[in-house]
Amino acid sequence: MCGGVPVISWPFFADQQTNCRYQCNEWGVGMEIDSNVRRDAVAGLIAELMEGEQGEEMRRKAREWRDKAVEAAKPGGTSHRNFDDLVRDVLLPKN
């Protein structure tokens, strides 16, 4: 998502099911490959993501998420501040 492109997910184990659920259902930036994967089905998903209406919306949302990630990682951004807090609270000696 930090690349600003939608994803095709084929969850198998561990946290992949959770990641797929968020990508496809919550954030709207992905499509899931059916468990009975077929070449024509994968080709259809790729075509939809690259050229279809649903794919256009997913590409727009993926760009929004990319922009949010870039802002969060900049100095003063939320991720940057959280990392600084972690270093200060966990790694640096207490005075």
TrEMBL record:
Entry keyword set: Transferase
Top-level taxonomic group: Eukaryota
Example of a GO MF term: quercetin 7-O-glucosyltransferase activity
PANTHER family, per the entry: GLUCOSYL/GLUCURONOSYL TRANSFERASES (PTHR11926), UDP-GLYCOSYLTRANSFERASE 85A1-RELATED (PTHR11926:SF774)
UniProt similarity note: Belongs to the UDP-glycosyltransferase family.
Name of this chain's protein: UDP-glycosyltransferase 85A8
Organism, as annotated: Dichanthelium oligosanthes
Lineage: Eukaryota, Viridiplantae, Streptophyta, Embryophyta, Tracheophyta
